[in-house]
Structures are given as structure tokens and as C-alpha cells.
Amino acid sequence: MIKKLLLFVVLLAFAATATATAAGNPIVIDGSTTVGPVAKTFAAYFTKKYGIRVTVSESGSGNGAKSLINGTCTIAAMSRAMKEAEIMAARKKGVNPVAHVVAYDGLAMVLHPANPVRALSKAQISSIYRGTITNWREVGGPNARIVVIQRESNSGTQESFKELVVGKGVQITGNAETQSSNGSVKSRVSSTIPAIGFLGLGFVDRSVRVVAVNGVLPSITTVKNGRYPVTRPLYFYTNGQPAGAVRQFIDLPKTTAGKGMISELGFINR
Description:
By secondary structure, the chain is of the alpha/beta class.
């Protein structure tokens, strides 16, 4: 009888927490535009299934970290790991960032479909972004100036690209054009024949053409088995270990439904 009573109390507490979250305390997500499609798809599913409101903003990984530190979001979506400086700033405010890997992503190097170049080495890509290779003929392409497209400094995708390809601490050429999202990079490359850019694998479509890096094309298989050299994890960050409805949301990538959503969006299950 006592055990049944205790179980009843626990269930009541959980129900009260869920009701409070749905009514006045929605789950608020802010951060990466790369993780954005996963967060939005999860949010729609979660709201429909549990009646708990989930809002998603895509202000960039750096701003997601700031939102978590300042207590203005429940979950920071990030396409890179938190920096040591961000972790220190969080701890000064009594915030304990805990990382949860959502999925894995390959950073695809993309060109205009009319560009005949089919493959580049990491060293060649690094040289292009550092500005030491400036013409496509230097890497087997036509005699045309390379239009270098990068992301904004607050982007986790930009940080990951610099660390994985260009070199940590190395400056990207001042001639590079900056775009604010995966979508705007894709739009610019798809309309500019001599352009090169990088996208999360889930954002690639027929408007651009992917090139092999070190002889390997990005795909679910090559990212998962580690052969593709420009691969990164995608994260949700919480303040401490999550509980209740937030825990349920964070655990979605472990579920059959969550894995299906991640695959449909072109990302790779952990």
C-alpha cells in the first residue's frame, strides 16, 4: 500500500511539472542554424505528443551559449563544443553547461554545378581560405578568380571549419565573403560559378555540387565510419543534468522517432 502511494505521489509530481511547463514554462531553444532543423522538427513532434510548448530561435552557436549563460534559454543548440571561456563565464554565473550529442554532421565543401573541379585536398582548401591559392587553375579548374564564401564569426559551423580544415588560430583571407546561414551560403554558391563554400550535410541539394575532400565524398556512411575528414558532432547544452520534460526532449535522439527525424533531415545518428 505504501509503495503504491509513493508511486502515485511521484506520478502526480511528474504530471504537475509537465503541466507547469506546458502552461507557463515552455522549453526555449536558441543557437545554431545547423542544429536548427533538428531542433524545430523535435519541437513540433514534442509539442504534438506531449502538449508542451517548445520555441526555437537560430541566432548562432555563440549566441546560444550566451543565452544559456544568461538564463534566457533552456537549451543551447550548438554546432561546436562550448569554448573554455564560455564555460568559465557560465560558472561565474552559477550555470553548469552539460553537453548532449544530438547527431553527427559532415561539413560539405560545395561548388557551383558548372565548376569542373571534382576533388580537393584539405591542404588545398586551407590554402584557398587562407588566400594563398586564389585562382581555380591552381587546383585543376578554369582560369577564374576563386570567390571564397565563409560564415559569420559567431557561427559554430565557421568555428568547426576553421579548426578542422584551415587550422586553429589561422586567419581566413580578408577577401572572403561572409554569409549568415547555411541557406545563404548555398544561395550564393549556387548563383556564382567561381564560388566555394561549406555547408552542413543536411543542407546540400542539387543547386550546388559537393566535392570530395582527400578523395572522400561526404555521406551518411563516410561520416559515420570516420572516413570523411571534415566531421563534427552537433550538441544540445543544458544547465546541469536535465530533468522532467527537458530530459525527455534531450533524450529524443535515443528514440526510434528521434533517430528517424535525424536521418530524414540528412544528419547522422550518434
